[in-house]
Amino acid sequence: MVFLKEYKNDKLWQENLNSIHIRSDLLVSERVLKILGDVKGKKILDLGCGNGKVCRWLAKKGANVTGIDIVNEQIELAKSIEKERKEGIKYYVGDVTDKNLSLAHKKFDIIISLVTALYFDKNQFKNHITLVAKYIKSKGRFIYANIHPCRVLSYLPSKGVELLSPRKNLNYFNIQQLKSKIISVDTTTTTTTTYYNHPLAFIINSFLGEGFMIKKIYEPQATKSELKKYKFILINEDKLISYIIFDLTRE
Amino acid sequence: MVKKFMKDFVKKSKQIYESGEKSVWLIPKGANKYKGDYGLLPEDTDIRSWQIPPSSAMLLRFLMLSKKAKIALELGASVGYSTIWLGLAAKEIGGHVYTTEIFKAKAKIAKKNFTKANVADYITLYEKKIINVLKEWPKDKKIDFVFMDADKQNYGKYLKLMYPLLNKGAMIVVDNVGDYPEHMEEFLEQCKTIKDAATYMLEIDHGIFLFVKGGGKNLMPLLTENFPLFKSNTLKVLIKDEELLGFWKNYMDSKVNLRSDVLISPLILDILDNVKGKKILMMEWGPGKLSKKLTKKGAFVTKIDLKEQINSFKNLKRPSDIKYISSEIFNKQNNPLNEKYDIIVSYMFHLYLNREEFFKSFKFIKQNLKDNGSLIYSDIQPFRAIVKNKIQRGVISLHNPFHANYLQFIHLQAKLRASNGDSLLSEYNRYPMSFLMNIFSKEGLKINNYYEPIPNVKDFKTYPILFSEEDKRVPPYILLKLIK
Q1: Are B226 and B371 found together in one domain?
Q2: C-beta atoms of A204 and B447 within 8 A
Q3: Which domain holds residue A242?
Q4: Is 0.80 surpassed by the pTM of this model?
Q5: ipTM field
Q6: At a CB cut-off of 8 Å and minimum separation 6, what does B484 contact?
Q7: How far is B442 from chain A (nearest CA, A)?
Q8: Is residue A171 within 8 angstroms of chain B, CB to CB?
Q9: Residue in A with minimal Cα distance to B408
Q10: Going residue by residue through chain A (251 aa), what tens digit of pLDDT does each one get?
């Protein structure tokens, strides 16, 4: 796993090593990098870039990358690594649900939003997609990945995360706030996170409303060997579907 | 006396089951009340206990009789309701039931109930922990039948201890699988890893899981043929063509509705709006109820019948202004219809196609749909099978939702319930979301709108037999409008 190697190399990140983050790295970020293919010379915008893991990987492949995140500390961390490595990545603190957000670059070839939109309510989600539509080049590519909307309805547990909201009454249609406990890999620390579940009809129709076309949908599932190898973060990932990835384009 | 007791006992348990409350029993004299003793607190004035639904209890007796089980073991007797039904079976076949109840007050009531039901001679109750009962079980006394209704989180442990004690062909019946699946994950996993075994998931009551050591004959025909719950007047399964004929007549006249007729059909009519003079190709399950409606609105309809269903339409009078074709046509190459259609509708149709037929049908759609024409596609919600956690009464599925793999093409069998209480046996496939969406994209069909319809208040009122609360929580269907 590309990212696991990075984690080991970077002491800065070991502090907040959560299984759910490694899992989404394996089942989303790695898959997305494969889906993107050759990115050499492409202008890429990463919305909700966090500490810049995906940005750095894309920069290594020769892309011209910009990362935005609302969390100041994360961007500071990303910038400090950029200072050391000088990969030419630009980072900004910014709200990616602000449709009027202004960026230095005019348009991007590729925009990615990876497991970011779960923190957005209905309006924020729509604004997020409007922002993407505004900054994407004609026939550009938009990769959207998030927790699969049906995931929360399943009773099968995942490693490192525990739903705190009462499961029995969960309704697929209520775009409600959910609460989960996140447990670190070494199970020593826990944090609580709140997020939203959006029905597929809402997500898909939001894309269509902004003129996007769905090229392909991926429902990444762990392979048998991955399940074995990453036992410490994967459980039930061969039965369920934890994430959904949309490969979209816009005229 | 015994008859009256059983009658009252069944009546009481029925009431309790239907009201969703726990049964309440007076605490017997001398019961040891101390804090933390299995739910009985010093301030408690009565014993509350859950009981299995009467239909599950009758099923237990039926299964034990059909297995001719001489030695039955029950984990968790509570006040003895299920034990009595096992005891009745033991009485008939000369067997014996061993049961456990750690809580003394409950055990006392249970024993009294056994005597009242006249089955005390056929039941031995151990007032011990289950784990100890299993550990002390004589190795040569092989068990034929097990009913598990105790501490769910320890089922895995119990199975490990129990398995060597089981006779070949022994059956384990597990209750509440639908209510507490999260506590039984390990147990169900374990059952799956045992190679020489058959497992069944009965979606009745609280969800009953059957495990048969050594596999053996398929149990399903036995259940559907003999067990009252699966073969009652209120849940009549229509299989023969002559039985279906009457059903189709009522169905075509809209006297009888299925779930999709309430949720999907009106939505399609709404989306299509003005169809006068339009050429529509209908891929429709059944004899063509929606096709008939569209014809009435002035559309020129060609209907494709599922080849498996055609025989049952033979003696049915269908509207003569509709052209009927068999789904065999997907196998023919090149543009077989010689004309292009404005609209193609797939109305609960593609789920009955296998993977090969599925791909062929989309080639066919591409060939026969005009440019800018629309495809209305309906299907079951791809993820429904893996997220459902409440059990619908009267629906049998051969597939075990707890072992479902989302990305596999799962072949399912279920009963389709109709609003008049009849039901049809239905075998269908479930395709993952990404599979469906990527076929659309591959064949150049652009998604224009995506719907996830659920029943409204009126639907619930009009068709209480068709919908459950679960349908509000998880959408049963998907409907898409696509443009070529």
Answers
A1: no
A2: yes
A3: 2-151+199-250
A4: no
A5: 0.85
A6: B366, B369, B370, B371, B372, B373, B374, B375, B444, B445, B446
A7: 8
A8: yes
A9: A239
A10: 555 565 555 544 544 556 667 788 888 988 999 999 999 999 999 999 988 989 999 999 999 999 999 999 989 989 998 999 999 999 999 999 998 898 876 899 999 999 999 889 999 999 999 999 999 999 999 999 999 998 877 766 677 777 777 666 678 887 667 777 776 666 666 777 788 889 999 999 999 999 999 999 999 888 888 888 777 777 777 777 889 999 999 98
